[in-house]
TrEMBL record:
EC number: 5.3.1.24
One biological process term in Gene Ontology: L-tryptophan biosynthetic process
Protein name: N-(5'-phosphoribosyl)anthranilate isomerase
PANTHER family named among the record's database cross-references: N-(5'-PHOSPHORIBOSYL)ANTHRANILATE ISOMERASE
Enzyme class of the recorded protein, top EC level: isomerase
Keyword line: Amino-acid biosynthesis, Aromatic amino acid biosynthesis, Isomerase, Tryptophan biosynthesis
CDD domains xref list: PRAI (cd00405)
Pathway(s) of this molecule: Amino-acid biosynthesis; L-tryptophan biosynthesis; L-tryptophan from chorismate: step 3/5
One Pfam family matching this protein: PRAI
Catalytic activity: N-(5-phospho-beta-D-ribosyl)anthranilate = 1-(2-carboxyphenylamino)-1-deoxy-D-ribulose 5-phosphate
Signal peptide (residue range): none
Organism of provenance: Candidatus Thiodiazotropha endolucinida
Amino acid sequence: MRTRIKICGITRVEDAADAVRLGADAIGLVFYPASPRAVSLQQAKTIVESLPPFVTVVGLFVDQDRDTIERYIHEVQIDLLQFHGDESAHECSRYARPWIKAIRMREGIDLAEIARAYGRAAGLLLDSYKAGVPGGTGQCFDWGRIPATLASRIILAGGLDPQNVAQAIKQVHPYAVDVSGGVERSKGVKDAAKIEAFIAGVKRGDN
């Protein structure tokens, strides 16, 4: 089975178009205001309305209140929710959408225990840990810490780029990979050539 690809931190219609044209399965829209890749409701709607069918739209939230999340869900056609903060499984399950939970790979974390706690999640997105930063660090973590038994539930993130994604896939065999900074020209502005190289790297990893 091929590795699925999510391009996160999309802020422009043209970047969404490039991602889809080049083979991405999903795009990520960041609704966390403190992020340099955050989009407004209007930006998000414009991007989503430009997409062709069968592209998954993922909305990223970080410890935001229920009313805020429900407003985004109501206003924007979001297919999958991504919770990137300290949300409990109960909090993640409140909405009429499938969801994934981002886990920052701090030292000593027990992934098997977390997988049980978030058993209703569609998947676990594994990201690098940096104190005070909920994601987008641009740093890798030790992929050897991921139990092989969980690979089919894993969306691998954290410092992936066109140069290392093939090796990451060969080692981890994740369900999907997630990239943001690794395919950017500047924060929030994607580079089509880097997206193309990243997707080529994913294909090499699958072979």
